């Protein structure tokens, strides 16, 4: 089972990100779950959300204490980072991994998702675009699964769907470099 922590700030869409990730895994034929962990529940406050992906049914129903992957939507959340992550941390930043000062055994991949979001979506909405990086780097979910999950989540908001899908594809290509 792969466990994922998504860290963001209130209003950035960390919960939506973990939900779309879990739906994409399901669309790819895997078992998945997503759930939030709310604290003070205010705009700008740190938010933690989780996802799990497995090839067999997931019966575990608790917070993720040690993750395989972490997705950090806001680079300011790297300060004081104490999460236990074993494999990979994806950080939305234009900095280099060594500039972040993260004390972890996990590999760190920095991708400037905000720039892509501003260019493609017109706003700094990174929560969906970051899943393109997750797909490209981990291979845990496919682009096709992401497209189907996005379609399910966006419903009849065609313009929003198209912009987010374009951002996913561009971030996917950027993360592969």
Explain how this protein is built:
- The protein is α/β, with parallel strands linked by helices and about 180 residues long.
- It has a single domain, classed as Pyruvate-ferredoxin Oxidoreductase, domain 3, CATH 3.40.920.
- It contains five helices and six strands.
- Helix 1 (about 15-25) crosses helix 4, helix 2 runs antiparallel to helix 5 and helix 4 packs antiparallel against helix 5.
Lay out the secondary structure.
Layout: E1 2-9, H1 14-27, E2 31-37, E3 46-54, E4 66-72, E5 84-92, E6 107-111, H2 113-120, H3 130-138, H4 143-154, H5 158-176
Q: Please indicate the percent range of residues in DSSP E strands (runs of 2 or more).
A: 25-35%
Rg, Å, rounded = 15 Å
Low-confidence stretches: none
- Give the proportion of residues in helices: 25-40%
Mean pLDDT: 95
Produce a short descriptive summary:
The protein is of the alpha/beta class and 177 residues long. It has helices spanning 14-27, 113-120, 130-138, 143-154, 158-176, and strands at 2-9, 31-37, 46-54, 66-72, 84-92, 107-111.
């Amino acid at each position: 089972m792969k466990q994922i922590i998504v860290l963001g700030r209130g209003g950035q869409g960390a919960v939506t990100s973990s939900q779309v990730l879990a739906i994409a895994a399901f669309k790819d034929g895997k078992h998945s779950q997503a759930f939030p962990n709310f604290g003070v529940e205010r705009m700008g406050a740190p938010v933690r959300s989780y996802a799990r992906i497995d090839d067999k049914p997931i019966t575990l129903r608790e917070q993720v204490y040690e993750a395989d992957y972490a997705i950090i939507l806001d680079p300011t959340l790297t300060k004081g980072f104490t999460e236990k992550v074993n494999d990979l941390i994806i950080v939305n930043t234009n900095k280099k991994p060594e500039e972040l000062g993260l004390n972890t055994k996990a590999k760190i991949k920095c991708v400037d998702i905000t720039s892509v979001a501003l260019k493609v979506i017109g706003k700094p909405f990174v929560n969906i675009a970051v899943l393109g990086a997750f797909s490209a780097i981990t291979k845990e979910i496919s682009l096709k699964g992401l497209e189907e999950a996005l379609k399910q989540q966006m419903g009849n908001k065609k313009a929003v769907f198209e912009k987010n899908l374009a951002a996913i594809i561009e971030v996917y290509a950027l993360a592969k470099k």
